[in-house]
Write a structure and sequence with these properties.
The protein is built from 21 helices and 16 strands. By secondary structure, it is an alpha/beta fold. The structure holds phosphoenolpyruvate and magnesium ion.
Length: about 525
């Protein structure tokens, strides 16, 4: 048996599929002669084009022609004689085919990313995709296609990036297992959003588990059974059925009011990372979106999303929620959320470094694109704007100034925009300690217990060695939460919670007693959270 952290509830029983990290290191490839290298290059290009054409056809059927056009664009780009000629010239100078692809693609990536035009910047990420695919073909290393694994698969990887997770077909995946991460890491948050059981931080899982092996993953206790006996299987099948029945019974809470027995009304909202996640919130009858983690729009690409792309994403969510509140949190990068193209300097303490609101205020061009996109999207729904990782009043004031500048710019250009309420996340001890002052500056608070627990306890959220200290029930964290709620109430502003603790059935009654107004949880926890609130006195 292996052990990890149970990070998304449920039981998965199925065959192991190891998703290996594919290396595209070609340092061992030896140059033979120019003709052989050019032949290898041409074959790789032909194969890439024919495979991409097939994929584009499939995508057109499943997702529509707009998505397929992106892939067709890759084919056009790679068919450019200038690009191929450049690669061949590199080969003539003694480069192996891999090196030629790498050098020429990098040249295009640098060129496209330096142009100040969003569409051109987007081309850089297309070339990055082309480069990765060609290198894999040349080296003969192909990764498992996550989107088409067989039914009843248990996926095992070092970690799941958001783009890997977005390709998971939840009908076929019983559970996911990773070697790193904890309950509040982003792979855990995504797994819970999809309702897939997950066990994280299983040391050497990709080596200790064999492809095709029958395994049981317990998303509650974090146990992984690799040597599955008949009695094991019977026991866990029964547990799985009981769990599914329990989950089914929560359907009684669909579209019910979230009110305590004495009639105190609360709001139960959902957390999302991508516009598509809104459907999960609607299916679970979430009463709003309490946290839209916009950094996911910036991840797994090689240049930042344009103002238009962001406007499209935010307005799609606002429209889908049909007048219900949507709290959009501005870019929260840094810490464990790396975005290579933003070129954040390597820091010794990234969680204490140039991240979130600090980075954004120092990069006003990037930040204002996001603020304008949010203001414009507010025409289509009930949007609130929220600042992450606030530690000082000055940060809030500076963000307000930028917001005013954005409104002036939009007015000057006659671009319509809506009004948005402004709130802050309370997720640092300093924000808690000045929450009385912050409450006079903003319209609402949302307590981010994931970070607040880490910063209060001085514990890295993802470090297994100090896991025991990462405890939201520690008196210090509970006092911080209580103080924040009290100060919000005194100032007459709303206070919610969007950290994972908002869904903790043992904490909810206390939060209700302290007067928390809004509970924003992963969509799959909405019904359980509402049930727990309804059972409070
Ligand atoms: C939090 O810190 O509690 C939070 C909700 O933000 P994130 O998990 O995205 O850091
Ligand atoms: Mg946070």
């Amino acid at each position: 048996m292996l052990r990890g952290i149970g990070a998304s509830q449920g039981y998965g029983i199925g065959r192991a599929v190891i998703i290996e990290d594919i290396s595209t290191d070609y340092s061992a490839v030896k140059y033979t002669d120019a003709k052989t290298e050019k032949d290898r290059l041409q074959k790789a290009i032909d194969r890439y084009i024919s495979e991409t054409k097939e994929l584009a056809k499939m995508i057109e059927i499943s997702a529509g022609s707009k998505e397929a056009e992106i892939l067709e664009g890759h084919i056009v780009m790679l068919s450019d004689p200038f690009m191929i000629l450049n690669m061949k010239e590199n080969i003539d100078k003694g480069a192996v085919a891999e090196k030629a692809v790498d050098a020429v693609c990098n040249m295009f990536i640098d060129m496209f990313s330096s142009v100040d035009d969003e569409l051109t910047k987007q081309r850089a990420s297309d070339v990055q995709d082309i480069k990765d695919s060609l290198l894999k073909i040349l080296l003969g290393v192909r990764s498992v296609d996550i989107s088409s694994v067989e039914k009843k698969s248990v996926l095992i990887a070092k970690d799941f990036t958001p783009s890997m997770t977005s390709r998971i077909n939840k009908e076929n995946v019983e559970a996911i297992i990773t070697e790193i991460g904890g309950v509040t890491s982003h792979s855990a948050i995504l797994a819970r959003a999809m309702g897939i059981p997950a066990v994280l931080s299983v040391a050497d899982a990709t080596k200790k588990i064999k492809n095709g092996q029958l395994i049981i993953a317990d998303g509650f206790s974090g146990k992984i059974f690799t040597d599955v006996s008949e009695s094991n299987l019977e026991f866990y099948r029964k547990k799985q059925n009981e769990y599914l029945a329990r989950k089914d019974s929560l359907k009684d809470y669909l579209n019910k009011e979230s009110a305590t027995k004495s009639g105190v009304k609360k709001k139960v909202y959902g957390n999302i990372g991508k516009p598509e996640d809104v459907q999960n919130v609607i299916h679970n009858s979430g009463e709003g979106i309490g946290l839209f983690r916009t950094e996911f729009l910036f991840m797994d690409r090689s240049s930042e999303p344009s103002e238009e792309e962001q406007f499209e994403a935010y307005s799609t969510v606002a429209r889908a929620m049909d007048g219900k509140e949507v709290i959009i949190r501005t870019l929260d990068i840094g810490g464990d959320k790396e975005i290579p193209y933003l070129k954040i300097d390597k820091e010794d303490n990234p969680f204490l470094g140039h991240r979130a609101i600090r980075y954004c205020l120092d990069n006003p061009v990037l930040y204002k694109k996001q603020l304008r996109a949010i203001l414009r999207a507010a025409v289509y729904g009930n949007i609130k704007l929220m600042l992450p990782l606030v530690t000082t009043l000055e940060e809030v004031k500076s963000a307000k100034e930028l917001l005013e500048e954005c409104k002036t710019e939009l007015k000057e250009k006659n671009i319509p925009f809506g009004s948005v309420l402004l709130g802050v996340m309370i997720e640092t001890p300093s924000a808690v300690l000045i929450s009385d002052l912050l409450a006079n500056e903003v319209d609402f608070f949302s307590i981010g217990t994931n970070d607040l627990t880490g910063y209060t306890m001085a514990v890295d959220r993802g470090n297994a060695k100090v896991r025991g200290l990462y405890d939201t029930f520690n008196t210090s964290v509970l006092r911080a939460i209580e103080m924040t709620i009290r100060n919000a109430k005194q100032a007459g502003i709303e206070v919610g919670m969007c950290g994972e603790a908002a869904a903790d059935v043992d904490l909810i009654p206390t939060l209700v007693r302290w007067g928390l107004d809004e509970f924003s949880v992963t969509p799959s926890s909405i019904l359980q959270t509402r049930k727990t609130i309804c059972e409070c006195e």
